Amino acid sequence: MLKNKRGEGYIQICVLVIVLCMIMSVFVTFAGTVNVVRLTERNTKTVLEAYVTKNSIEIYNSIKQSTNETESIDADEYISDLAKFCTFVKSGNYYYHKDANRRTEYYISKPRIGFTENERLRLYVSYTLYVPIYFNNIRIGTARIPATVKINLDERF
Q1: In terms of residue numbers, what domain contains 72?
Q2: How far apart are CA 111 and CA 44, in angstroms?
Q3: CA distance 82 to 106
Q4: DSSP assignment string, 124-135
Q5: In this structure, are residues 70 and 58 in contact, taking their beta carbons and an 8 Å threshold?
Q6: Is the pLDDT of residue 146 over 90?
Q7: Number of folded domains in the chain?
Q8: Whole-angstrom Cα distance, residue 108 to residue 82?
């Protein structure tokens, strides 16, 4: 008996196309996640610099007098500004960013803010960024990315 082998040549090509699509899907997901990380870091730094500008007289007087009275920063004010700037919605200890369909695009843990060096204006903000990974509109996992943003502001004469 002879078998019809007309369709057997296309099976390898179909499998190859499927594998290539899967690989491209992973790269697109990775690129989207990297974009979210960069966007969040840039927004965090922008809000931190705005916070420093808003409180610059108080911070400057503290540094000038070498008393370092700004050992603690009003984290609640900074977080409130960050939530407004990034349109975050607070739920528990997390701040969520949702897309137009009200699906969670990404979320961050409550940011911690402080000084990296005493008696200098070197600030940091650290948080954990969570990026849900979807496949066919089904959440298959979450990428967890720890992030720290630093700014160093020095006197110039």
Answers
A1: 22-153
A2: 9
A3: 15
A4: EEEEEEEEEEEE
A5: yes
A6: yes
A7: 1
A8: 11
In whole angstroms, what is the distance from residue 94 CA to residue 92 CA?
6
Residue 11 lies in a domain: no
Q: Map tokens 């920063």 to a residue.
A: 73
Q: Cα(108)–Cα(147) distance, rounded to whole angstroms?
A: 10
**Calpha distance 50→81 (Å, rounded):** 9
Percent of the chain with pLDDT over 70: 78
Q: Please say if the pLDDT value at position 69 is more than 60.
A: no
Interval 96-123: pLDDT, tens: 988 888 888 889 999 988 776 655 667 8
Structural tokens at position 101: 């369909």
Q: What does pTM read for this prediction?
A: 0.70
Q: What is the pLDDT of residues 28-64, one digit of tens each?
A: 888 888 888 898 889 988 988 888 777 777 766 666 6
Angle ∠(116,48,92) on CA atoms, nearest 5: 95
132 domain-assigned: yes
What is the C-alpha separation between 86 and 154, in angstroms, rounded?
A: 27
Question: Do the domain assignments include residue 16?
Answer: no
Q: How far is CA 43 from the centre of its chain?
A: 9
Q: Is 103 part of any domain? A: yes
118 to 62, 65, 72, 114, 151: CA distances (angstroms):
11, 13, 11, 10, 14
